[in-house]
Amino acid sequence: MAILADESPKMQNAAPDISSTNEHSESQDIIAEIKGQYSNLSPAERSVADAILSDVNAAVAASNAEIALRAAVSEPTVTRFCRSVGCAGVRDFKVRLTRSLVVGELFLASDKRTGPPNSDAATPFWSSIFSEAHLALREVEAQLDPKAVQQAGALIAKAGRCVVVGMGGSSASLADETQVRLFRYGVPVSACNDPYMARMTVSTFQPGDVLIIISATGRASQLMNCVELAQHYRGHSIAITAPDSPLSGATDIALTTQVHEFPDALTPSASRFAFLMIIDLIAAATGYHLGDRARENLRRIKFNMVSTVSGEKLEPLGE
Fold first, then answer.
1. Fold (topology level) of 5-103
2. pLDDT at 99
3. What topology does CATH give the domain 132-306?
4. Whether this model's pTM surpasses 0.70
5. Distance (Å, rounded) from C-alpha 47 to C-alpha 67?
């Protein structure tokens, strides 16, 4: 049987030439394609898929023969598998597989549980999530400057308007959380997670208005633009972000913390716990600066919330 050019032993062991792929190859998520086509594959081809998905890093470095050996199939079966998932051959498949690792191997890890029902092996996230939360709180306490928190609370308490900006994933939800923590004190506050709306909103700032930006990296150019606009219109800016980031150096007050992340893609990031603590601290600082005004707003909220629910149990304020 003639050996196809792209499946010769020399080509199989060579590093994939990513630059030679076409535009469609560059955009295809081959991992998703394998999983999506899995039910349509033959039993032998499924064995190849299982062997590859169980260790994608090893599959990238392996030759056609090595993949066949791991899957207990013939080399032509590996070639047929590659074509079944939309590739021109083994070489094209390896190029696309290499690209799939750009997003990180964490997302390809198996979630199989091997321990008894109540063991750490059966619930691997239990200890890691609690440990991450505890670590994050300790790091915030050790790294955060209490004077900066008080200064942030003073600015927010005096602001004619406060805008909280968080873009993407956790930052957007934390911006909403900040709005919830502050409006209860009577602070005119709104949350924004769209970059264009954020710029338009900050463009209407008056002197003394406050921009709060939440960003895990502190590098997004859209956020820096918002800071520049706030400064131009004589507003103030507060950042909840990573230390030594462009954002931390640009804002009037930077509330920063650096927390080690646990390498598990399925659990919350430690920085989320840390940022939640910072939000609670600046909210409390704002409440103390407002004093009786904040207490009166909380009293009204509680009065009207109690009147709409049954039972006499006192619930958390504002919840």
1. Arc Repressor Mutant, subunit A (1.10.10)
2. 79
3. Rossmann fold (3.40.50)
4. no
5. 10
